[in-house]
Design goal:
382 residues; alpha/beta; Carbamate kinase; Archaeosine Trna-guanine Transglycosylase, Chain: A, domain 4; 2 domains; 14 helices; 13 strands; globular; binds glutamic acid
Length: 382
């Protein structure tokens, strides 16, 4: 860490103190040298040191990193030409190994474990897969691991892909219930005009709403040479703000990018969340059309009111036809609605495990599974 610079001081960004989980998005242009298409190893080392420092003060860190395609095309000697889709996908497959390896080596030197997670937009649109990603992410964070996320470019074709890591990062932030998303880019925030063509363009320090006027302004602003321009950054901001997560755009191109942001060396734009994350999530759960009912006993109702998850042991019967991830109503024996939540099991599975103790679930199903039928985080009581 550079002298007199510490992430502990939070001076220019006091909000950092209140965060638990932070998603850091790294654009291709700040990680890969655009002339050589090689990884900027000094930059990466400085950034990973900052990650280690944030971990030391108790933050969960998730990295969403671009760079696979650029690294892969260098390795495959495909630098000079415009790539076809299959060549882009091949480059991503080759580059992703190199990318993950670079993070792994650097994090490992600081005694941190990393994990690779490759996602497509489709994964977060399917509630069942979304729940799986969320619980894997939670376990990794609990184990102190730093997940390294990228789009699964080798399987993602147009209809199922994000196409840019800005929106992917925003989705990851919501899925992992992050408090803060930082887009490290080669531009230090949102401007009224393109600062490359007008150096006096007005810089915005805080944005409360993504208005059509802002989107129009952003249309003329170029950011890094990756897929995402300012428009995709604003779309990421909209996803993030609507989900209750704060988002920052700051210049990440110099070494020690987070220290520069926190100490005010690099400017930034702050996108303020619409409401409290827990409240927005409750609203979302209540807005989903339910596909079935779980009838529960009085012991389960007491446990739910004490902020516990609903376990199979407390379920007397079920009705409806639902899949893991679908919304269900929780009903008492005398037909009073107790709440609504996302089911951790399908209706067929519920019929097999209702009334069972946790240790009996695997035997009844024939395969291991999670314990909660409706996890407390996926539950809203009436
Ligand atoms: N997933 C792409 C890569 O790793 C980057 C997408 C983007 O630049 O936003 O190369």
């Amino acid at each position: 860490m550079e002298p007199n610079k510490s992430l502990n001081s939070f001076c220019n960004y006091p909000q950092l103190e209140r965060t638990t989980t932070i998603v850091l998005k790294i654009g291709t242009s700040i990680l890969i040298d655009s002339d050589t298409n090689l990884l900027k190893s000094k930059w990466l080392k400085s950034f990973v040191e900052e990650v280690a420092e944030l971990k030391k003060i108790g933050k969960n860190i998730i990295i969403v990193s671009s760079g696979a395609i650029a690294l892969g095309r260098k390795i495959l000697n495909l630098n000079s030409k415009k790539l076809e889709l299959d060549e882009i996908q091949a480059s991503a497959a080759v580059g992703q190994i190199r990318l993950a390896q670079a993070y792994e080596t650097n994090l490992n030197q600081l005694n941190l474990n990393s994990a690779q997670i490759l996602l497509t937009a489709d994964d977060s649109h399917h509630r069942r897969r979304y729940l799986n990603i969320r619980s894997t992410m939670k376990s990794l964070l609990k184990l102190g691991v730093v997940p390294i996320v990228n789009e699964n470019d080798t399987v993602a074709t147009d209809e199922i892909k994000f196409g840019d890591n800005d929106r992917l990062a925003a989705q990851v932030a919501l899925t992992s219930e992050a408090d803060l998303l930082i887009l490290l880019s080669d531009i230090d925030g949102l401007y009224e005009e393109d600062p490359h063509s007008n150096p006096n363009a007005k810089h915005f320090s805080t944005i409360q709403n993504i208005t059509p006027k802002l989107l129009k302004m952003a249309g003329s602003t170029k950011s890094d040479n990756s897929k995402g321009g300012m428009i995709t950054k604003l779309e990421a901001a909209r996803i993030s703000m609507n989900g209750g997560c704060e988002m920052i755009i700051t210049d990440g191109s110099k070494n020690y990018p987070l220290t520069n942001f926190i100490n005010g060396v690099s400017k930034h734009t702050r996108f303020v969340p619409r409401d409290d994350r827990a409240k927005l999530r409750k609203k979302w759960i209540l807005s989903i059309k339910t596909k079935g009912n779980l009838f529960v006993d009085s012991g389960a109702i007491l446990a739910l009111r004490r902020n516990k998850s609903l376990l199979p042991a407390g379920v007397i019967k079920s009705s409806g036809n639902f899949q893991r991830g679908d919304a269900v109503e929780i009903i008492s024996n005398d037909f009073e609605k107790i709440g609504q939540g996302l089911s951790g099991y399908s209706s067929i599975e519920v019929e097999k495990i209702k009334g069972c103790k946790t240790f009996e679930i695997e035997k009844k199903l024939g395969y291991p599974s999670r314990t909660a039928l409706v996890h407390k985080d996926d539950l809203v009581l009436s």
